[in-house]
Amino acid sequence: MIGERLADARKDHKDTQDTLAQQLGVSRYTISSWEQEKSTPSHEDLVRICRLYNVSSDYLLGLSRVERPEEFTREELAQIREFEEFLVWKRRKQ
């Protein structure tokens, strides 16, 4: 399931396997292997894919049919990321 859904998410964002590989710091062969379900991404890579493509891990793993828990605009997502960064900064200051 993860291979097909990863390929769909990648194509939805108009990324090639090479582009995704560069963004994740892995080889194109690794991306191809994941998409063909010959191997699976590490936990860290799975998290990075979810953040990059704004999809839930449950969706990629086939545990949910819902790609995203909520649909947000790009502007709203940017605001969420800014708030997340603020919370991390605030936690570190304490």
Outline the secondary-structure elements.
Blueprint: H1 2-12, H2 17-24, H3 28-35, H4 43-53, H5 57-60, H6 74-93
List keywords for this structure.
single chain, 94 residues, mainly alpha
Structural notes for this entry:
The chain has 94 residues and is mainly alpha-helical. The chain has six helices and no strands. Helix 2 (17-24) packs across helix 3 (28-35).
Decide which structural class fits the backbone: mainly alpha
Major β-sheet profile: none
Oligomer category: single chain
- Rg over CA atoms: 15 Å
Order of helices and strands: HHHHHH
Number of strands: 0
Helix content: 55-70%
| First-residue to last-residue Cα separation | 42 Å
How do you describe this structure in short?
With 94 residues, the chain is mostly helical. The protein contains six helices and no strands.
